[in-house]
Write a structure and sequence with these properties.
Layout (H helix, E strand, L loop, with lengths): L6 E9 L9 E8 L3 E9 L4 H19 L4 H11 L11 E9 L3 E7 L5 E4 L2 E3 L4 E8 L2 E11 L5 E5 L19 H14 L5 H15 L8 E9 L3 E6 L8 H10 L3 E5 L1 H11 L3 E3 L12 E3 L2 E5 L2 H12 L21 H10 L3 E6 L19 H16 L2 E6 L1
Helix pairs in contact: 1-2, 5-6, 7-8, 7-9
């Protein structure tokens, strides 16, 4: 695989300290000029609202400065000057890690008092030399940044975390001093050995899940893990709605058949057209019944078949809410599995993809003109545009829409 064909997948998972309502860690990732992706993890001192506000301020400033190519030393000094300092410990109220990577693999990492990042290559931890960059003295205390610059290879992963990960389990057997970065590295290596192609989203979730287990199900600190995965892009096509004329039904089915990647069909009418043209059977999966979302179906050659507008509308809510911030809610804690309805399965497939093509039929579906349907039920093309916007802005995906 050539470097030019690579894609930067970024995702994270986090959980707030037991007894708090917000997380004092903030993870932010955004695209920058030059095919770059800038990711920042900030850990506000303490927990709760104050920590969250200071961490949010840190991530916003850091992402803006690095995206604008401001000198890293100067950017760090501005952040340090802006943040208040704890009177007792004489340290800044937020620590941070910044990862700046472009599509050719050129990578810079700046660290300030967070746990060290982990670079994984070929299923093993790779050590990278770091440069200690002195900053101006703040409150009579010499401050240093750790700076790394290197090229990642296709398949490499960079894992960053807040101290809630290595310190999980502290004071509890069998690790009274905490899980520790060495054991975190061992866990990551074992996960990659079992599942070499694991997504950034799932790997981050597993790290936080294991840290929560170390804390016996009650997080003793804000816990965040972010993963940057440099790899070949994963492609998915979502087909929804019948073509504008019946003469183009065969074209719709042919595009589905010829697409190289995962294929999703949303809509009973659309599924019926493709099944008829490809001489396939559609079978409803009655094992996935849900009170809010119609059940999915199965069809040979198609990875997922769902109902149309209701499922897509629920998908918007998932992408904007439950799955938008990487938060591990109560339903995701040990013993509380995710609801596996059709909308959640659809969201999972899209978040595990990088380049998503939407093939949208423009024939009016008579079922959607029913005045008894919910007011928020949008027409197909509008909800697809909304999904694309959410995927691009919040999840850094590449999307394309073609109407047929």
């Amino acid at each position: 695989m050539s470097v030019e064909a690579s894609f930067i997948e970024v995702d994270h998972c986090q959980i707030h300290k037991q007894g708090q309502f917000v997380c004092g860690d903030v993870f932010l990732s955004q695209k920058a000029q030059g095919d770059r992706v800038v990711s920042v993890l900030a850990d506000g001192l303490g927990s709760g609202i104050k920590a969250s506000v200071l961490a949010s301020l840190t991530t916003t400033m850091a992402a803006r400065f690095i995206s604008s190519d401001i000198d890293i030393t100067r950017a760090a000094e501005i952040i340090m000057e802006t943040l208040p300092v704890c009177k007792e410990r004489r340290i800044a109220y937020s620590t941070f890690t910044i990862v700046d990577m472009d599509r050719k693999g050129s990578t810079r990492i700046i660290e300030y008092d967070n746990p060290p990042y982990i670079l994984l290559r070929d299923g093993k931890v790779l050590e990278i030399s770091k440069q200690a960059v002195p900053l101006r003295s703040f409150n009579d205390r010499q401050t240093f940044l750790q700076y790394s610059s290197f090229h990642v290879h296709p398949g490499d992963r960079i894992v960053i975390c807040s101290d809630g990960v290595p310190q999980s389990g502290m004071g509890i057997k069998p690790h009274p001093l905490g899980w520790g970065m060495d054991r975190v590295e061992e866990f990551l290596v074992s996960e990659l050995a079992c599942e070499p192609e694991i997504s950034a989203r799932l790997l981050a979730r597993r790290v936080v899940h294991r840290a929560l287990q170390k804390d016996e199900g009650k997080a003793r600190d804000d816990t965040t893990c972010g993963v940057i995965y440099f790899r070949e892009p994963r492609r998915t096509m979502v087909i929804t709605g019948p073509p504008v004329s019946r003469e183009r039904d065969s074209e719709l089915a042919r595009k589905a058949q010829e697409f190289s990647g995962k294929k999703i069909v949303c809509g009973g009418t659309t599924a019926g057209i493709i099944a008829r043209e490809l001489h396939a059977d559609v079978k409803v999966d009655l094992t996935s019944l849900d009170p809010e979302v119609p059940p999915p179906s199965t069809m040979a050659g198609i990875d997922l078949v769902t109902e149309g507008t209701i499922t897509l509308s629920n998908l918007c809510g998932l992408l904007e809410g439950d799955l938008a911030g990487g938060a591990m809610g109560q339903e995701n804690r040990p013993g509380h599995p995710l609801r596996r309805n059709a909308a959640m399965r659809l969201a999972t497939m899209l978040l595990d993809s990088d380049i998503i093509d939407f093939l949208v039929g423009t024939r009016i579906n008579d079922a959607h003109q029913d005045p008894n349907l919910p007011r928020e039920l949008e027409i197909r093309r509008n909800v697809v545009k909304r999904i694309c916007r959410i995927l691009e802005e919040r999840h850094l995906k590449e999307t394309r829409i073609k109407f047929i």
